Amino acid sequence: MLSISSLLKYTKPMLPQDCLLCAARAHAQPLCEACARALPYHDAPACPQCAHATAHGGVCGECLSYPPEFDATLAAFDYRFPIDTLVHQIKYRSNLALVDFIASGLLRKLHGAEKPDRLFAMPLHSARLQARGFNQSVEIAKSVIKQWKLPLQLTGYQRVKDTKEQAQLPWKERHANVRGAFSCDLDLRGQHIAVVDDVMTTGATLNEFASMLKKSGADKVSAYVVARTLKREL
Predict the structure, then answer these.
(1) Contact at 8 Å (CB) between 173 and 184?
(2) What are the start-end ranges of the E strands in the chain?
(3) Residue 230 φ/ψ region, left for φ over 0, alpha for ψ in the -120 to 50 degree band, beta for the rest
(4) CB 63 within 8 A of CB 213
(5) Burial of residue 142 (number of CB atoms within 10 Å: 0-12, 13-18, 19+)
(6) Phi-psi bin for 51: left (phi > 0), alpha (psi -120 to 50), beta?
C-alpha cells in the first residue's frame, strides 16, 4: 500500500496555503503531512464484500446471510471527522479543489488491486445534477483515472428516480427509497464493473445499482468508495 507521502504527490498542486485542519503550513496541499497521516484510514480488518469491520477480515455474517448484489467493496476512509467534513465541503460547498486529495486516499487503497474492465460513477438524477452543478462521484472517478488508467463510462446508464436524500431517512427505509431508481442500456456481459461513490452507509443505493448492472450482464460489481460509515453509527 502506498505511503502517505507517496499518495500526497498524486494530488494536483495548489498554491501555498495553510492546513485546513490545524493551520500549519501545508505547502501545495489542503492538509499538512501530519494531519494527512492522522486521517481515519479504513485499514482495519474488514469484510471484503461490504467493508464493515470484522475481527477476522473474512466475509461478515450479514453478507453470508443476505448476500448483496455487489461483490466487493474497497473503502479509503472511515466516515468520521475530518473526512465527513471534507466530503461535505465538496458535496454541499462545491469545494472541488479537495477532490484530488480525497481521491488520492482511494488510489492508496486501490494500489495493487485487481483492475476492473470499466469504471462507472454513481449517477445523480438530472434534477439533482442541475441543482448541484456537478456529480461528486464523477469528479472523484475522473481524478482516479488520471493515475489508474481505466475506461471511465459516463453514458448508457442513469438515475431515473429522483429519490429522497438517503442521509435524511432511517436506514431501514433506504432500500425502499432507491428501488427502481436506475436504468442501464449497456451490454456488460462478462465484465467486471467498478462503481465509484463518495460515501457508503447501508449500501442500499449501491446494491440497487449493482442489481441493475448485473441485469445488464455484469459478471462482477465492485464498489470503490471514499468513505465507509461505521456500523455502530447506522
Answers:
(1) no
(2) 17-18, 25-27, 72-78, 118-121, 152-153, 157-159, 182-184, 192-200, 220-228
(3) beta
(4) no
(5) middle
(6) left
Ramachandran angles phi, psi of 37, nearest 5°: -70, -30
Nearest Cα neighbor of 122 from 171, 157, 70 is 157
* Residue 71 in grid coordinates: 461483490
DSSP state of 98: G
pLDDT tens digits, residue range 174-229?
A: 767 778 889 999 999 999 999 999 999 989 999 999 999 999 999 999 999 999 99
- The enclosing H or E element of 73 equals strand 72-78
The answer to whether 56 and 47 have CB atoms below 8 angstroms apart is: no
- Residue carrying the nine cell digits 449517477: 123
Question: What predicted TM-score, i.e. pTM, was given to this entire model?
Answer: 0.88
What is the CB neighbour count within 10 angstroms for residue 210? 23
21: its cell numbers = 485542519
Q: Ramachandran region of residue 66, left (φ > 0), alpha (ψ -120 to 50) or beta?
A: beta
Indicate the angle between helix axes 136-147 and 83-93, nearest 10 degrees: 110
pLDDT in tens, 14-54: 567 889 899 898 887 889 999 999 999 999 999 999 999 99
